[in-house]
Amino acid sequence: QLQLVESGGGLVQPGGSLRLSCAASGSLLDYYVIGWFRQAPGKEREGVSCISASDGHTYYTDSVKGRFTISRDNAKNTGYLQMNSLKPEDTAVYYCAVGPRCLGYVSHDPFYWGQGTQVTVSS
Questions:
Q1: What's the CA gap between 99 and 12, in Å, rounded?
Q2: Phi, psi of 15 (to 5 degrees)
Q3: Nearest by Cα to 20 from 36, 33, 39
Q4: How remote is the C-alpha of 43 from its chain's centroid?
Q5: Nearest 5°: CA angle at 68, between 29 and 2?
Q6: Count of CB atoms within 10 A of residue 15's CB?
């Protein structure tokens, strides 16, 4: 069974950067898309970004375009989310997920989820 372990969250000041990692074990990520979601306190979970498996296309929700970059390294069986110019409204628990396809910036019908990692942006 595929397992996803997320890391890289923490506390940063506005304008700072973090890189989230999503390390997979038990199976290869090569044929899965990788998506990132987030859930802020009192709000519903929302899709943030998705990267396809077959053609490498990347997708982002409007609020993070130009600031976040999604990537993958299949040789390391790991996905990443580089987050720059962080804002307080980016504060949330971030989740990695893998599935069959990207539906825009949302990973559609993901098979597996990571445990989540807390990102807090505050001065």
A1: 30
A2: 90, -10
A3: 36
A4: 17
A5: 20
A6: 11
